[in-house]
Write a structure and sequence with these properties.
With about 300 residues, the protein is mostly helical. The chain contains twelve helices and two strands. The two termini are about 20 Å apart.
């Protein structure tokens, strides 16, 4: 999928349960043609039913031992940028998905987006339980954890979530019939935040921990989070393909949103402690991370019709 192929990433995304999502980024055929089959909204809902999981079944006992004894203080600090981005990000997208769901024009779309809201809430609880049981932070309450871990984020993260995404969901709250605003919100939410940033980070974080043989409970749960995200992005792909075919102004809305958000999203890839672009995070350079994310985005855009 571009760059130095993560050893665990390819085998993971080749798994049947990942392939079932029909996320175009997982389809090699999307490099050659836009005419690939995507799941319908009803099929995505049924897949959600089949892919249920529980945070309470995860065992973090080995993870606590790794965090306290095998991972150095400096490495823990560096890892916290990736962990914090996901913990805070899951909480923020859970809050902002409601207006998107209410603005969806069909019942099948609304029903699937309701499942996504449930997924995002479960992802927040997954991180909360990991942080608490592993002893990542001094705080013990969810609200306090979110405040404490937010110190590890950079300004681009806040701009992308608190300004760009929130502006669009606020517009939808006021005018849910504004389909152009809905297209912009789905582009930003599903293509950029989930499709580029989240899934790229997830694959490299899991690959790094698997190679280092650290945090097995976290990896087991994070793998399920990533599978959920691929299913969400599959929804965004079919929705945006429909809208791009329906009217050129929706295609322009997708392009406009990408042009505005991609430079900010690129800034999210750099942790605040990085003094230049010459750094590695989870064993990968910024150039490799960009290439991986770009390949995934281009496959999805080709299938959408851009």
């Amino acid at each position: 999928m571009g760059a130095r192929e993560a050893s665990g990433t390819q085998s993971r995304t080749d798994r049947a349960d990942f392939q079932e999502t029909s996320d175009p980024a997982l389809m090699a055929a999307a490099d050659r043609t836009a005419d690939v089959k995507l799941l319908s909204y009803a099929e995505l809902y049924l897949l959600w039913e089949r892919q249920q999981w529980q945070t309470q079944e995860l065992d973090f006992s080995r993870d606590r031992e790794d965090w306290e004894q095998r991972i150095s203080e400096e490495e823990r600090f560096q890892r916290l940028y990736g962990l914090s981005s996901f913990f805070i990000g899951e909480q923020k997208v859970a809050e902002e998905l409601g207006p998107i769901m209410r603005a969806a024009p069909t019942e099948d779309q609304k029903i699937f987006l309701c499942t996504q809201i449930a997924d995002e809430a479960r992802h927040v609880r997954f991180f909360e339980r990991f942080y608490r049981e592993v002893g990542v932070l001094e705080s013990d309450q969810l609200s306090e954890m979110l405040v404490e871990t937010s110190a590890h984020l950079n300004d681009n993260f806040s701009r992308l979530f608190d300004e760009m995404l929130k502006q669009r969901t606020d517009r939808l709250s006021a005018e849910p019939e504004d389909t152009e605003a809905l297209v912009e919100a789905v582009t930003l939410y599903h293509m950029v935040i989930e499709g580029m940033l989240a899934l790229t980070g997830q694959h490299f974080i899991m690959d790094f921990n698997e190679r280092e043989d650290t945090l097995p409970g976290f990896v087991a749960g994070f793998q399920k989070v990533a599978r959920d995200e691929h299913r969400h992005v599959a929804f965004g792909s079919v929705f945006l393909r429909e809208k791009a075919r329906e009217d050129d102004r929706y295609k322009r809305a997708i392009q406009r949103t990408l042009e505005e958000s991609l430079p900010v999203a690129d800034g999210v890839l750099s942790p605040p402690w990085a003094e230049s672009e010459d750094f590695e995070l989870f064993g990968y350079s910024l150039a490799e991370t960009r290439e991986f994310a770009g390949t995934c985005l281009m496959r999805r855009l080709k299938v959408i019709g851009l």
